[in-house]
Amino acid sequence: MEIFKLETCLSPSMFHRYDCEGKIVVIIDVFRASSAICTAFHNGAAELIPVTQVEEAREYKRKGFLVAAERDGFVLDFADFGNSPFNFTPEKIEGKRIVYSTTNGTQIIQLTKKSFRTVIGSFLNISALTKWISGEKKDVILFCAGWKGNFSLEDTICAGAFASRLLESKLYNTICDSTLASVDLWKTAEKNLSKYIDKAAQRNRLREKGLDDCIEFCITHDFTNIIPVVEDGILKILKHS
Amino acid sequence: MEIFKLETCLSPSMFHRYDCEGKIVVIIDVFRASSAICTAFHNGAAELIPVTQVEEAREYKRKGFLVAAERDGFVLDFADFGNSPFNFTPEKIEGKRIVYSTTNGTQIIQLTKKSFRTVIGSFLNISALTKWISGEKKDVILFCAGWKGNFSLEDTICAGAFASRLLESKLYNTICDSTLASVDLWKTAEKNLSKYIDKAAQRNRLREKGLDDCIEFCITHDFTNIIPVVEDGILKILKHS
After folding, report:
1. Chain B touched by A207 (CB under 8 Å)
2. pLDDT of B48-76, one tens digit each?
3. What does the angle CA B209 – CA B79 – CA B206 come to, to the nearest 5 degrees?
């Protein structure tokens, strides 16, 4: 049986140390981009167009696109809504192409251009995504989005949850310290995930801004079977069996 | 009572996210630079002169200095010895100024120039260093050297051991996810440190090169009370009460 390689990158600042060519990259940004993207597709969005620059998002708005855009957790004044998964309701977004600009997540997509596939992972789609990965027979990089180039606890424990499942399948092995650490942190966290996540810095940043209403939702397992995938720079639903 | 801030940086790739001005920075490179430096001073070295370039080390050798120099774990041909703590024996080094060039550790020192004090931390001097830090009344950054810009498990758990002690003293608090993670990893690791460290990638890299004879020594607590400090770019023994 062929065994595939599993690695974890704990922050975009370290992604230059990883070679993603030919590999599956799973981008994880639990609070809140990954969770919002999974929810948007679950609720019927047709496409999400990631943009990094505010001006680019504003230009799309002028052209009539729906725009989800925030910086540092605050909705930009010209945008239709921000980055909470709760914004992406079916009545607003069904069948729509949505321009999506965030502080962090969208910039990261561009780092993974050479991958075999770049997909979006969260607790919301963990089982479906793990199952799909396991069928692909490829090396895997779990890529934590972190916070402004630094480590974030919630993305790391989510990576650890993915890594635990993949390693248990015996299809993967790892010699990557980041993977080992994320698995151990997940084992500590999973005993009481809500309580554990409560200490994460990003959770506190969201609370200060009154944006923490979606936290419990973001750590819900298997809300959806949808796997968002990046194709030619656009987020779409991955067609899979 | 004034409370001071504790942060942890998990890799040099993320150090640009930290402002070390006026703070104590503890550089941690368990396998093997921190451990070797602590041992060198314990065994009587007068000064260690860190150099980043091989040619610079070679030039010092020509001038008659003792030179400890390796790249990727291998001793350079012109050097007197390499980076194992076991090389720094009293008969070789007592009273000497030693030029010290390594793959990783020495380059990191230069990143911390603006600190109040940059000191070298390891399991070997954990109690003495924790005691000194606690008396200084300064914010603290635990700076994991990692491996070629990436995360390393052994440095992170050592940072977690320092952080656990500092946080228990109630003199420090943290809102830093990296600190929280390192403390949790330490709590997992400390139950059986030898076994835990056995899975770290760097440990395996050293084993492949036959350089793992010092691993047990490097995780020994409190071998020395010496605190190495950087002064004008040179490593010396910190004079403290």
Report:
1. no
2. 999 888 999 999 999 999 999 988 778 89
3. 15
